[in-house]
């Protein structure tokens, strides 16, 4: 009975810590889950090596997904972004509210784009604000049985640097292209908060509006397409991706290791 109460106590404490606003305490709660797994293995088998084995499950189990699913994923090297019908309101109810919020800040809705391959669907709603030479994109990603969305703000400098502020909820599964500068925010930030953060990031780095590229709204789809292709090319060069004989792009074993390390970062960071 004592063992059950101890394990339940550590687990409940971990859940409580994960619900707090402090990043440090939330991280402590994450390690509490590891401690819970260790206690289950140790107290029920009376062997501390089994406790370590149970705790290590959190670190090892992603490899099953990496080997059985991610390794088999084929990505098109030049899949073109095309016009795409927005998802049904019941599937993505936040789209209308986000659109209204972004347009309320002076951004013009330009186009809805997307691309599909295998079991992945991507939808992008693109906005442009001429006086700030900036774009905003609502991004919806569907992969098999789950979906998530994030918002991306983009300012392109005349020297080729792409300044991005976003609330992407996970660590990246690809290396960032060298010309990208990322300003990451948590997923609970509103668009206005993201916009304030983006402006502050540009100011902090001495990027003035006159240093930004004047983008033709009609060329934004081609720009997004070329930037995505540049990122894929960068990751092929870095050994994260490889191009097969059939022309499809796949993760290398080095790429799988990179994703696993990113998972560990998420496990520690977890916002």
List keywords for this structure.
271 residues, alpha+beta, seven-stranded mixed sheet, 8 helices
Fraction of residues in β-strands: 15-25%
* Helix-strand pattern: HHHHEHEEEEEEHHEEH
Rg, Cα atoms, Å: 22 Å
Total number of beta strands: 9
Residue windows where pLDDT falls under 50 for at least 5 positions: none
Provide a compact summary of the structure.
The chain is α+β, with helices and mostly antiparallel strands and 271 residues long.
What does it look like?
- With 271 residues, the chain is of the alpha+beta class.
- It has 2 domains: 2-60, no CATH class; 81-249, no CATH class.
- It has helices at 2-18, 23-45, 48-60, 62-68, 94-104, 191-204, 220-238, 253-269, and strands at 82-83, 108-117, 120-129, 134-143, 146-156, 162-166, 180-184, 241-243, 249-251.
- The strands form 2 sheets. Strands 1-2-3-4-5-6-7 form a 7-stranded mixed sheet, covered by helices on one side.
- Helix 2 (23-45) crosses helix 3 and helix 4 (62-68) runs antiparallel to helix 8 (253-269).
- The longest helix is centred in the first third of the chain and has 23 residues, at 23-45.
- The radius of gyration is 22 Å and the shape is globular.
- The model has no long low-confidence stretch (mean pLDDT 81).
């Amino acid at each position: 009975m004592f063992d059950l109460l101890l394990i339940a106590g550590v687990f409940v404490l971990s859940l409580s810590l994960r619900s707090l606003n402090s990043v440090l305490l939330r991280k402590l709660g994450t390690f509490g889950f590891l401690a819970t797994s260790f206690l289950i293995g140790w107290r029920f088998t009376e062997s501390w090596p089994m406790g370590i084995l149970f705790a290590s499950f959190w670190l090892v189990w992603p490899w099953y997904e990496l080997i059985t699913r991610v390794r088999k994923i084929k990505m098109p090297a030049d899949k073109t972004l095309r016009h795409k019908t927005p998802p049904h309101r019941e599937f993505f109810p936040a789209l209308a509210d986000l659109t209204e919020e972004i347009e309320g800040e002076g951004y013009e809705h330009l186009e809805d784009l997307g691309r599909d391959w295998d079991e992945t669907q991507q939808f992008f709603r693109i906005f442009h604000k001429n006086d700030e030479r900036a774009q905003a994109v609502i991004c919806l990603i569907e992969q098999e049985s789950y979906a998530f969305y994030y918002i991306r703000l983009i300012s392109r400098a005349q020297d080729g640097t792409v300044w991005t502020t976003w609330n992407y909820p996970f660590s990246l599964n690809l290396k960032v292209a060298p010309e990208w500068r990322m300003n990451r925010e948590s997923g609970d930030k509103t668009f206005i908060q993201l916009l304030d953060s983006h402006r502050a990031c540009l100011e902090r780095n001495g990027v003035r509006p006159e240093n930004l590229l004047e983008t033709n709204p009609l060329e934004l789809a081609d720009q997004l397409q070329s930037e995505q292709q540049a990122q894929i090319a960068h990751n092929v060069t870095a050994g994260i991706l490889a191009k097969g004989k059939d022309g499809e792009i796949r993760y290398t074993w080095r790429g799988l290791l990179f994703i696993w390390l990113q998972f560990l970062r998420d496990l520690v960071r977890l916002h």
